[in-house]
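Protocol step 4 of 5: obtain the predicted structure for the target chain.
Materials: sequence only (see below). No template structures provided, no constraints applied. The aim of this step is simply to have a reference model before the mutagenesis design in step 5. Sequence pasted as it appears in the construct record:
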Amino acid sequence: MSADSAVKGSEPAIVAAHQAARSLLPFEDDRDLDDVGRGFLGTSDQRDITDSDGHVVWSLDAYGFLDADCPDTVHPSLWRQSALAARHGLFEVAEGIYQVRGFDLSNMTVVEGERGVLVIDPLLCVETAAAALALYRRHRGDRPVTGVLYTHSHVDHFGGVKGVVNAEEVGPDVPVIAPEGFLAHAVSENVYAGTAMARRAAYMYGAALPKGAHGQVGAGLGQTTSTGAASLLPPTVEITATGRTLTVDGIRMAFQLTPETEAPAELNIHFPGHAALCIAENATHNLHNLLTLRGAEVRDPRVWAQYLTQTVQLFGASTDVVFASHHWPTWGRERVLTFLSEQRDLYAYLHDQTLRMINQGLTPLEIAERMQLPPALERVWHTHGYYGSVSHNVKAIYQRYLGWFDGNPAHLWEHPPTEAAARYVDFMGGAEEVLRRAHGSYADGDFRWVAQVVNHVLFADPGNTEARELQADALTQLGYGSENGTWRNFYLTGALELRHGSVGTPTVTASPDVVSALSLDQLFDSLAIRVDGPAGWNTDITIRWNVPGMEPITWRLHNGVLTHVFGEGPAAVDPDLEISLPEADLRAVLLGTTPATHLADRAGIQVSGDADKLAELFAHLGEPDPNFAIVTP
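Step 4 output (structure tokens):
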């Protein structure tokens, strides 16, 4: 798909802002340039990584354009960050520790043991992980995988595991190690709001944007997400306490649990034999998200900062290199301590100052406008908001403590966007007058205001061609001006959809491996949120599932609510239909791979009662919309 934005350059206001940024930012500090190339051993001759059908899931050449000088259509700070993050290949971190970087959104680390290698965070998909391991073996020999370690519960850190090891190989001699609570969080993140999160993730990572100076240049934390097959092998060893030590294949490790930081289940690993610290994703070369733009639960910056202090206390005196599962390492004990301390201060400052302003009565928008980092933090590159941002992070902190309501009763019962838009446009003299004045604001370089006011015209009349074009142009300029990679992607994807229609959701929310790891509780819950409540107000259906080795499960649709209860008791009302079946068949019904109407025909399944009730209940379940509108009503 081509993008009209490709023919639109930056307006003078954006060019001037970029020139100002070049004079204010510390471009003389080029230590990152040295660090990103340190230890480079080589990269792959296979430039495209493909799946079994030949589809390209990752291209090593996609970001070659970043070797050129920064154009006016990209913030110079983001261009610098993207050029660094796009560097790909195998790199030596310390003797016996290697990273494959630039083969996915995340890094894969390989630690050499006595018999083979421990793989840490095997990327997002099977294909990129396999390619990364092949690159390592090409340079270091065909060593077997003798262990896998997941640092945390996000898919870009475990999804490629079956590209490095298979289920049959896992066992006492090949453990899969993870922090406590990993599996529950890994499989639950996309269960309930997965469709909405995936749709918004398409905006966040710019999946449909052309790669180049007028389109997607990266996401700050890494370049983008690969599009291959995600997998999952459940952990065989859980780390349940800070201070635990473990030796795998002769590799000594000391662990620090850091739950509720960047992920709900996360850990750091110190390698005393290497004076090296894997900081997972708790300290990277950017300000991270406290609330990702695709949507998630708000993270706790207070706890995050406290854990980084603990990290320094535990490992600071014995660490000569710190590396993460994104970006590049930092070498030298003094630099390591400075880096970790500045990252700690970054999250602590945002937390404390947001709370200070909350208690002065400021609202989220007001705090976001007033918040400014200390000059000492602004002067270092790794605190910049390439992925998270000061603006949306302080709003997340407000949300964590006070929720959506800013306390002003005028905001307590506002009209929905479409109804409000019609009234705004009417009060402002009609769409023609709004657009006339908006064109003037655009000429003045006030793109932020243009986007805000023209949005009302679009939601009042989504077919207004002039409004769509002006809004797309304004969003394009806001994208060109953004230092934050995910903001740029959101703005430019919005502009693309205004010009060409919905780009949909290019990625799936959950792989078969992840879905198979869901508990029955989670599966029942995932169906409950699909009930069309109003259509089921007057329906009362109860079904009991009898599964060998389990308590009976009573499923009831009543008052538009689908509930389930395990065992006997007052909530387990008498069923209209009772079904006895193996767990695998129950899962197949809940996942939709076995139609409810075919259940009675399967061997080994006993049905008593009104067999039509199951199909009647399933008829009340709707399908989520993966292509819902975002920039139009």
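Step 4 remarks: Residues 395 and 622 are 33 Å apart (CA to CA). The radius of gyration is 26 Å.
Proceed to step 5.
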